[in-house]
Design goal:
The complex is a heterodimer of chains A (377) and B (83).
Chain A lengths: L9 H14 L6 E7 H9 L10 E8 L7 H12 L4 E5 L13 H6 L4 E4 L2 H10 L5 E7 L4 H14 L4 E7 L2 H10 L2 H5 L6 E4 L2 H6 L5 H6 L4 E3 L4 H17 L4 E3 L11 H10 E3 L2 E4 L3 E4 L3 E3 L8 H4 L15 H5 L31 H16 L1
Parallel strand pairs in A: 1-2, 1-7, 3-4, 3-5, 5-6, 7-8, 8-9
Antiparallel strand pairs in A: 10-13, 11-12
Helix pairs in contact in A: 1-11, 2-15, 6-12
Chain B lengths: L4 E10 L2 E6 L2 E6 L11 E5 L2 E5 L2 H27 L1
The chains are: A alpha/beta (377), B alpha+beta (83).
Chain lengths: 377, 83
């Protein structure tokens, strides 16, 4: 497909690999965090790691919205379906994430919950229009890519007077997560991650632009290169990061100029600002409570806020004791460091969130990485 | 979750809706988040919404840059080999 296949070209990849090998100085180590699960997926699926010199290491970050969703939030969605008998609409990725009491959304469905998988927030609103006698709730999760569509449907529901529709808002913010990795006290518990720079989000940046990352480059002296999700994009970004490190620069560079500008999508940003406001605090799975790291629905649209409508309360729930998702999401540990990985925790039977979504570090490594290592011996 | 993909707009039944072609599969998406989209444009599609337009000139520039990187290294290797 156009604008996909060209960015997966094997010959060009060889050239880029040679350029990376020539740029990386043998006397030093490089560690870069790919923030997005989309990058993790591309790196694992196309074996980008194999094309990098041994002294260039990629660290998986927390940028998979399914992975950072805490158990307590999924419990709220299950409560809506089972206790309040609402039709609960969710993106497919969330269905298998383990929740409390041995439940997941999928298991709650088998217990009689009316839980429906939707491709788009617009589909959830359609279900509400078609079922005026039922309460319909959209379980809204995701970073800045999925937030504008949620804003659009809330505005539409308000304009049309769809009174049986509401949203359980769990939208989170990318810059807050990056900042928490760089300075949160929890990092000290696991040990700090020596990072030389970040591969910045692709599609999130189409919405928010490259400007929000300038702060990290300036204040934390970390280079950021925003990259597309195809393997050649990631390789080019790694090369750009190595060059910044070699030259002692800490700047925001944009490899994904075909879709990202400094300003981003101003129309989408305005819609988000109209419908949502910052939450004072939000718990992230594996990263603790981070102030001003998520969004809540504004008072003007309170009728469409499922938390207010159903009087829901958030109760934090600890992860499984042996699960290392928290440390993996921060880049402190790798999937194979977890005792549960590949034994009791598999994509078919995930214990932790990183094993659920195909963009999760554990799922990507389980699917594409571990056999390669077995072959390599 | 974030794996949005570029797709070509093949029809616009109304200003807020586009029919896009995803490798032969046609799908209706919302244009509520973007402006000035026309038939033939490529848009980044995610959860049923176009997030942004794709700039074909910038895409070509990026591809040219990839090719240049490889050529540069090959030329350096050649020069080193002949020295």
């Amino acid at each position: 497909m156009k604008y996909i296949d060209e960015f997966r070209d094997g010959e060009l990849a060889k050239g880029l690999a040679a350029a990376i090998a020539a740029a990386a100085r043998p006397e030093r180590q490089y560690a870069f965090m790919e923030f997005c699960g989309g990058h993790t997926h591309a790196i694992s699926r196309y074996g980008v790691t194999d094309l990098l010199p041994a002294n260039v290491r990629m660290v998986h970050g927390p940028g998979c919205p399914v992975c950072v969703l805490p158990i307590g939030r999924i419990d709220m969605a299950i409560e809506l379906a089972l206790r309040h008998q609402a039709i609960l609409c969710s993106y497919g990725d969330c269905l298998r994430v383990p929740a409390s009491a041995g439940l997941s959304l999928l298991k709650a469905k088998s217990h009689g919950g009316d839980i429906r998988m939707v491709y788009s927030a617009a589909d959830a609103l359609k279900i509400a229009r078609e079922n005026p006698q039922r309460e319909v709730v959209f379980f809204a999760i995701g970073f800045e890519t999925t937030t504008p569509p949620t804003a659009v449907v809330i505005k539409q529901a308000a304009a049309e007077g769809v009174n049986n529709f509401s949203v359980l808002c769990c939208h989170v913010l990318t810059p807050s997560a990056i900042m928490s990795i760089l300075e949160s006290p929890e990092v000290r518990r696991w040990g700090t991650v020596p990072l030389d720079g970040f591969v910045g989000p692709a599609h999130v940046s189409t919405v928010i632009g490259s400007r929000p990352y300038e702060f990290f480059a300036e204040e934390y002296r970390k280079p950021v290169v925003i990259a597309g999700f195809e393997p050649l994009d990631v390789m080019q970004a790694i090369l750009m990061l190595i060059r910044q490190v070699n030259e002692g620069r800490c700047e925001v560079e944009n490899e994904f100029t075909r879709a990202v500008s400094r300003e981003g999508n101003v129309k989408a940003q305005a819609l988000v600002a109209e419908v949502f406001e910052l939450r004072r605090s939000f718990e992230w799975r594996g990263m603790g409570t981070i102030p001003y790291s998520a969004l809540a629905i504004r008072q003007a649209f309170a009728d469409f806020d499922a938390e207010r409508r159903f009087g829901l309360e958030y109760h934090p729930v600890p992860d499984h004791k042996a699960c290392e998702c928290g440390a993996i999401l921060r880049g402190v540990k790798e999937p194979r460091d977890c005792k549960l990985f590949g034994t009791v925790c598999t994509p078919e039977n995930p214990i932790g969130s990183c094993m659920v979504s195909s963009e999760g570090a554990c799922a990507a490594y389980y699917t594409y990485g571990r056999h390669r290592e077995e072959i390599a011996g | 979750m974030c794996l949005a993909i570029p797709a070509r707009v093949v029809e616009m039944p109304d200003p807020e809706t586009a029919i896009v072609d995803l490798g032969g599969v046609k799908k209706a998406i919302s244009l509520a988040l973007v402006e000035d989209v026309a038939v033939g444009d490529y848009v980044i599609v995610h959860v049923g919404f176009a997030l942004n337009k794709l700039n074909p000139e910038e895409a070509e520039k990026t591809l040219a840059l990839f090719a240049e990187m490889g050529d540069l290294v090959a030329a350096q290797d050649g020069a080193a080999g002949s020295a």
